[in-house]
Design a protein that fits this description.
Elements (H helix, E strand, L loop, with lengths): L24 H5 L5 E4 L2 E4 L9 H5 L7
Protein backbone atom coordinates (compact mmCIF):
# COMPACT_ATOMS: atom_id res chain seq x y z
CA UNK A 1 0.00 0.00 0.00
CA UNK A 2 1.40 3.40 -0.98
CA UNK A 3 1.30 6.08 1.64
CA UNK A 4 0.60 9.59 0.41
CA UNK A 5 2.84 11.01 3.12
CA UNK A 6 5.69 8.66 2.24
CA UNK A 7 6.00 9.66 -1.42
CA UNK A 8 8.24 12.49 -2.56
CA UNK A 9 8.76 13.50 -6.15
CA UNK A 10 12.43 13.09 -7.14
CA UNK A 11 14.29 16.38 -7.31
CA UNK A 12 16.23 16.91 -10.51
CA UNK A 13 19.85 18.05 -10.34
CA UNK A 14 20.58 21.76 -10.23
CA UNK A 15 23.72 23.81 -10.75
CA UNK A 16 25.28 25.95 -8.04
CA UNK A 17 26.42 28.78 -10.33
CA UNK A 18 29.03 30.08 -7.89
CA UNK A 19 30.81 26.68 -7.96
CA UNK A 20 30.55 25.95 -11.69
CA UNK A 21 33.82 26.61 -13.54
CA UNK A 22 32.35 26.00 -17.00
CA UNK A 23 34.63 23.07 -17.82
CA UNK A 24 31.85 21.17 -19.64
CA UNK A 25 32.57 17.83 -17.96
CA UNK A 26 28.87 17.42 -17.13
CA UNK A 27 27.91 18.09 -20.76
CA UNK A 28 30.14 15.27 -22.00
CA UNK A 29 28.46 12.70 -19.76
CA UNK A 30 24.82 13.78 -20.21
CA UNK A 31 23.23 11.15 -22.46
CA UNK A 32 20.13 13.31 -22.91
CA UNK A 33 21.84 16.52 -24.08
CA UNK A 34 20.13 18.33 -21.22
CA UNK A 35 23.08 20.52 -20.25
CA UNK A 36 24.47 23.54 -22.05
CA UNK A 37 26.84 26.35 -21.13
CA UNK A 38 25.31 29.80 -20.84
CA UNK A 39 27.70 32.64 -20.07
CA UNK A 40 30.31 30.08 -19.01
CA UNK A 41 28.08 28.21 -16.55
CA UNK A 42 26.23 24.90 -16.88
CA UNK A 43 22.47 25.10 -17.29
CA UNK A 44 20.23 22.03 -17.06
CA UNK A 45 17.13 21.86 -19.25
CA UNK A 46 14.54 20.35 -16.92
CA UNK A 47 12.42 19.11 -19.83
CA UNK A 48 15.30 17.07 -21.30
CA UNK A 49 16.77 15.91 -17.97
CA UNK A 50 15.80 12.33 -17.10
CA UNK A 51 17.28 12.47 -13.60
CA UNK A 52 19.98 9.88 -14.27
CA UNK A 53 22.26 12.03 -12.06
CA UNK A 54 25.45 11.22 -13.99
CA UNK A 55 26.21 14.94 -14.14
CA UNK A 56 26.44 14.98 -10.35
CA UNK A 57 28.95 12.12 -10.35
CA UNK A 58 31.19 13.67 -13.00
CA UNK A 59 31.26 17.29 -11.81
CA UNK A 60 34.76 17.82 -10.43
CA UNK A 61 33.72 21.11 -8.80
CA UNK A 62 30.75 19.54 -6.96
CA UNK A 63 28.64 22.30 -8.53
CA UNK A 64 25.73 20.04 -9.45
CA UNK A 65 23.59 18.90 -6.56
Amino acid sequence: MNSFLGYRKPVKPRVEKNLCCGCGQCIRFCAFNAITLVEGKAVIDEEKCRNCRKCINFCNQLAII
